[in-house]
Specification:
Layout: H1 6-12, E1 16-19, E2 22-25, H2 32-63, E3 71-74, E4 77-81, H3 87-97, E5 103-108, H4 113-117, E6 124-128, E7 131-132, H5 144-154, E8 162-168, E9 171-177, E10 180-183, E11 186-190, E12 197-199, E13 203-207, H6 208-213, H7 216-231, H8 234-240, H9 254-275, H10 282-294, H11 307-321
Parallel strand pairs: 11-13
Antiparallel strand pairs: 1-2, 3-10, 4-5, 6-7, 6-8, 8-9, 12-13
Helix pairs in contact: 1-2, 2-3, 7-9, 7-10, 9-11, 10-11
Length: about 350
Amino acid sequence: MLRSFRHGCRLLADRFFAGAAGIVVILGTPSASAAVGQNREEFEAVRNADLELAEIGWRLSVANAPLCDRLEPGMGFQLHTLDQFDTASRDAAREHFGFATPVAVEGVLAGSPVARAGIRRDDSLVRVGPIVIASMPGKPGTTQRLVATQLAIAALAPDAPIEVEAIRAGAPIKVTVSPVPACRSRFELRLAGDYNASADGTMVQISARFLETYTDEQVAGAVAHEFSHNILHHRDRLEARGVDFGMLSGFGANVKYFRQTEIQADLLSVYLLANAGYSPRASIAFWKSFGPSKAGGIFRSRSHPHWRDRVATLEAEVAKIEAISARPMIPGLIAERNQPLSGDWQSLLIRHK
């Protein structure tokens, strides 16, 4: 399925940048007549890519809700905002997606609570429970209002009915959504040509290049690793240790704490995958494909274990769980997530032979 927008991702690679407030779409207009079809193709490429990642995030976050102590109401829609489009393409985006309010439904996941309630793609949101979209804060030209809306929805009760008001093709609609508990985390596609993936405690961000290059399950393996950082509160625990992030993460006392979190995230990822119906070996397949060309040699950070050792560690953990049929599986790492990081990564890592 991910292959369906490979051309679209390549088409878009030079046309986006990620700002501090989120992803801003830059779709310059050539001639007026040529721009119409080009914009439509690009708009739909963005929509399809966003929904591919949303589907992975949905499966992981709903199936693993029993492992999470921070929950949100799982709705099953992907939202976007007119503000994320630059001024040159904003009018075209408004027409294509039918924006009637600042935040609208980019897509709906099949079988999700919003799908069952009758919400459709391109519905423009007016109100979600007590959240009035027009009153959400945000600087024009940024995704701040979208993020504020997402965080406000995430703060609602995870399993209580939510009344949603929207505008569809100019007419008001009102439905009641019965959400399901889901792990609290946003999943954001970074439209760029690199191979960056990160987690900040509340969000998982992954570059579209992953979706273009790797199989569905391999992408799920990469997303599950980043998602594991959020579930295990790694950002909070690293900050509590006073570590240095960025380029300094591979020096001094920082190394042991980052390595511990990396290995823990690897280990938890196979449980998240299995609980969500993916093969737990997806992480192994990802590292065997990604590692040799993109995570080795002089490009490997000292804060991250060698990819071959990561594969050996994952293989040992998968061997433990493949005979277990009960779901969800909850590993012991979950019970440790509120404890200070010890820096002991050696006892977790299995060396490649």
